[in-house]
Amino acid sequence: MTLKIKSNLMKTVLFLIIGILVMGNFGPSYAASEDLNVNVLMTLDSEWALINSEPFRLEQAPIIIGGRTMVPLRFITEALGLEITWEAETRSVLVEKDGNLIRLFIDRHKAELNGKFIEVEVPPTILNGRTLVPVRFVSEVLGYSVGWQGLTNEVTITGSRPSAENVIELELSIEYEYALEVLRLVNIERGKAGISSLSMSNELLHVATVKSQDIVDHNYFSHTSPIFGGLKELLEYHSISYMRAGENLATGQKTPEAVVSAWMNSEGHRANIMNPAYNKIGIGIVAGGKYGGYTWTQIFTN
After folding, report:
1. Distance between CA atoms of 232 and 103, rounded to whole angstroms?
2. 3-class secondary structure, 57
3. pTM of the model
4. Which of 50, 53, 165, 167 has the fewest CB atoms within 10 Å around its CB?
């Protein structure tokens, strides 16, 4: 495999080193697939999540409380197609799946599973008006598998929805809408030159978002991450297969139009965008960075 990355000189660093932004004239909601299999990926302290590789915004980012990862109950139950009922008198939430009924009590170390009380090491709590629950406890009690990746602070939940009828429409994140618009603008430029369009890869979108979040979290501005290393190492870590790869970075821009214009006016970044060898792209956008606005990452492969 060969790796080719175009990077810009420091004189253009003030706005270019992270990626692609997307904002589109697309619908505000996403009707999930009727496939009952579900894979949810969340990142600690990030309001961005994936459901079967599709990105969504959480009302509250996952956080650590008492050594346990706490996640927003509403997002989890909607993503998994579960039914919930709130009982104000007992300050409890009922969650049902496949005949199993679990009752979670706010700020109490006991839960009720099919009429029997069980201990909860860290109880559900309300933060900023949102109910947070211990992700491992709730998921595993209801028959889902939970994974944790310490290097990237990622939580995964895998299993199956009880019924396709329970799939809920969830709102697309503004970052994903921006990414779609960036993709549209990039393909317009390629089309002018007679170059075939790029297609969005959800796997690359995830990796690009990890890169943007890494830049914001660790306050650097470079193709080389203090955590992952360079693009080659980042792609290998996420098991991305490719023959050729490139990366564009930018920070500070507030709109897709601004970031695409900046890239197209930079020789190195333009070369990546217009490279006919690439046919896939991932665009990761995260709010924040050295210059405010958003941090943008484009990753190209073939």
Report:
1. 46
2. strand
3. 0.56
4. 165
